[in-house]
Amino acid sequence: MNVLHIEDRRENRLLVRKLLEARGHRVTDAADGLTGIELALAERPELILVDINIPGLDGYEVVTRLKGQGATSAACPWWRSRRREIAAGRWPWGSTASSSSPSAW
Question: Per-residue DSSP letters for 28-54?
Fold first, then answer.
C-alpha cells in the first residue's frame, strides 16, 4: 500500500515509516500541510495519515482541502496518542478515517 504521512516531527515520521515499511508498505512523508497536499494530489496514495497540529495548515484544513479536490478517499487524521497503538501493531484506522475521528470525515 502507498501511504502518505503528513507530520512535522521528524521522530514521528521515522517511527511510522519504520513500522509501515516493515510490513511492506511504501511511505512518503511531508513535514507540513501544503507539501502534504501537493504530494497527495501528485501521488494519489491509498492511505493518508495527517497529524492535526502541523505547520502552515492544520490537519483539519489539509483534509478539507483534499476533500474539495476529491483526494481523500483514504485520508486519516490522527492524534499523537495514536503512536502507542501504531507501535503496538494495532492499526486504529479504517479505509477512510481513524476510529476517533469525527464521523463527517
Answer: EEESSHHHHHHHHHHH--SEEEEESS-
pTM: 0.70
Q: What is the rounded CA–CA span in Å between residue 79 and residue 1? A: 21
pLDDT in tens, 30-42: 999 999 999 999 9
Q: Which helix (H) or strand (E) holds 3?
A: strand 2-6
In the predicted structure, residue 74 carries a pLDDT above the cut 60: no
pLDDT value for 52: 87
Q: Edge-to-edge, what's the strand order for the sheet holding 26-30? A: 26-30, 2-6, 47-51, 75-78
Instruction: Measure CA 67 to chain center.
Output: 14
Q: Cβ–Cβ contacts within 10 Å for residue 78, how many? A: 24
CA distances from 31 to 23, 28, 34, 39 (A): 22, 10, 9, 11
Q: Which residues contact 35 (CB under 8 A, 6 or more apart)?
A: 6
